[in-house]
């Protein structure tokens, strides 16, 4: 298989995953009249804090954190606090960074929605191999007092690059 066929397969697979992530975020079991998640933007946070969850970050904060997390120049040890699942695989951040570098991927967080249960979703623009950005939803979980990219999402991204991790089994 030549390089272009592989890139094409990765691009098609990524569109399927991005679509699935987007659709899963659209589905809701909420009853009419139930409280809806609050949204935050890059300019303000509009979410009441409950329990012991960390403050809801702005889109700009999450975007900056995500960019550091996939930056090949950032040592893996500094990335561990950004990603769920590192206790099962401390190399998980490096694996994700390798995938992003190999596939020339970009992710830009554009909006944050606090789901109020220790999870939030980040609307993002996701592109592979210099292609057109597609809408994506990146899930985050509150863990150890910090917001971390959800392990399942990381595992889906790794699978696009035919990679795996002990954290994903």
Automatic annotation (TrEMBL):
The residue range of the signal peptide is 1-25
Q: Which InterPro entries match?
A: Mtb12-like_C (IPR058644)
Q: Does the keyword Signal apply?
A: yes
Where does the source fall among the domains of life? Bacteria
Spell out the residue ranges making up region: Disordered.
28-52
Q: Which family does it belong to?
A: Belongs to the MTB12 family.
The molecule here is called Low molecular weight antigen MTB12-like C-terminal domain-containing protein
Native organism: Nocardia terrae
Q: What is the lineage of its organism?
A: Bacteria, Bacillati, Actinomycetota, Actinomycetes, Mycobacteriales
